[in-house]
User: What shape does this take?
Amino acid sequence: MKVFQLIERHVEEVLLVVILSTMVIAIFLQIVMRFVLGTSLGWSEELARYSFIYLVFIGISYGVKQEKHIKIDTIISFLTEKKQVILHLIVYGLFLLFAVFIIIYGGAMSMEIFRLGQVTPGLGIKMGYVYMAAPLGMVLTTLRISQKMKQEFEHYLYARPYKLNGEKNVQEVHNEQ
Assistant: This one.
């Protein structure tokens, strides 16, 4: 159970670090090859580009988890706490619909690209894997939105303080001391 919780808490962070590291290494190799050896790697720029695509879509999920997406909170600050929660639930609901839309249609498009058999010119991998970045990232996003909606709903019903992914809230920390 603890292993599952550890994975659930850090899946985006691990994926983002691995993908970003892959990008940096690929670009570094390209620079070394080009300026030191006078030749270039045909696949490194492509790997960096496709890694960036995955980075963006997994980053959306991480942004939801950390509540770091851009939002205008001027109006929200004038609302009562209950109305703020209701507005958050509506916003998360709309975001969830968008994510499900991307999962369905992005997945269908990926399957079509797989069916057509397109491959990338430099790496020689199937383009369907590149197109899968959107639906896979949105699956993670859907899970994170669902968690946030559950937290908001529990806060609305029971006035429970927020906890991010099993972290202790302020009251629990003070009770331990």
Remarks:
- The two ends are 27 Å apart (CA to CA).
- Residues 81-116 form the longest helix (36 residues).
